[in-house]
Amino acid sequence: MKNNRLYYLSALTIALILGILSRKINDIPLFFGDVLYAVLIYFGFRFLIMDSKKSTSLLLSLLFCFSIEILQLVQIDWLIAIRKTTLGYYILGEGFLWSDLLCYIMGTFMAFQIDKKLIKTQNLNTL
C-alpha cells in the first residue's frame, strides 16, 4: 500500500511540474496545462483517499475541477485578489472557458485509465 501512495505522490508531483512548465514555455498549447491540472487533481484525490474506489476519485476530481471553473464566473473582490497571486492563479484560474471543462474531462479520464492500467492495489474495490 505504501508503494501505491508513493506512486500517487510521484504522479501528482510530475503533473504539477509539467503543468507549471506548460504555462512557462510559449510553444506548449494552453489546453495542455488544463489537462494536466485535471491529472494532478485526480492523483491528489487518489493520494488522499487511496482506500476508496478509483471511480470515486474520478467523480470527485471532475466535481472539483468543474467547481473551480464555475467559480471563475464569480467576481468578488477578495476572490479576484486571490486570483492575482501566483498560487491563486494556478489553483483558481482566471476566466471561465467551456473548453476547459472538456480538458478536465480528458485529463481526469486519462489519469483514471493510467491508474487502472498501472496501479495494482490490495483492495478488491478498486473500480
Distance between the termini: 16 Å
Order of helices and strands: HHHHHH
* Overall pLDDT: 88
Largest sheet: none
Uncertain regions: pLDDT < 50 for 5+ in a row?
A: 122-126
Structural category is mainly alpha
Radius of gyration using CA atoms only = 15 Å
How many separate helices? 6
Shape descriptor: globular
The portion of residues assigned to helices is over 70%
Task: Write down how many β-strands occur, each being a DSSP E stretch of 2 or more residues.
Answer: 0
Beta strand %: under 5%
Number of domains: 1
Give a structural overview.
The protein has 127 residues and is mainly alpha-helical. The chain has one domain. It is built from six helices and no strands. It has helices spanning 2-24, 30-48, 54-71, 77-83, 86-92, 98-118. Mean pLDDT is 88; it is low at 122-126. It comes from Flavobacterium proteolyticum.
Tags for this model:
mainly alpha; 127 residues; globular; membrane; DUF2809 domain-containing protein; transmembrane; single chain; transmembrane helix; 0% strand; DUF2809; 6 helices; disordered C terminus
Compact description:
By secondary structure, the chain is mainly α. It has 6 helices and no strands. The radius of gyration is 15 Å and the shape is globular.
Q: What's the SSE blueprint?
A:
Blueprint lengths: L1 H23 L5 H19 L5 H18 L5 H7 L2 H7 L5 H21 L9
Helix pairs in contact: 1-2, 2-3, 2-6, 3-6
